[in-house]
Amino acid sequence: MQPTRVRTLVALAVVLGAVGWGVVQVVNSWTGRLLPVPWLAAAAMWLLAGATAYWAFSARPRLQGRPGVRPMPPVVAARSAALAMAASRGGAIVLGFYAGVAIAMVGSIGTPSGFTAFWSAALAALGALGLVVAALWLEYLCRLPVGPDDPPR
Known about the structure:
Layout (H helix, E strand, L loop, with lengths): L5 H26 L7 H26 L9 H32 L6 H30 L12
Helix pairs in contact: 1-3, 2-4, 3-4
């Protein structure tokens, strides 16, 4: 399993940003309305980011083998790393989509629905960014130490 590359996450975010912007344009041209963005999207992203950060913060002493702390079983560390990889990719996808939606809504921020949709999308994108950062931190913590016989990274 290779570590997550930031350029992969950036590529996902850019592609989905274009998709989000395009969805707003298509919905607006077909229906004459703005794309509704629920506040629940932002709340869910912030909740996932907080849960992932809490897991990383609580797992850190166990993964580092600090004295007086029960070490984390290897299978739990591997599952945590897999969770972190999935969360970083999912967060990058959501970040890109809602950032694209927010950028498309800038022109409509003067209307009440545009104002609400812009801030909902912007807060969802910020929550997704927090999820990506927390997931990358958790993945970093779950890396195996390099031994004397291992090739350099």
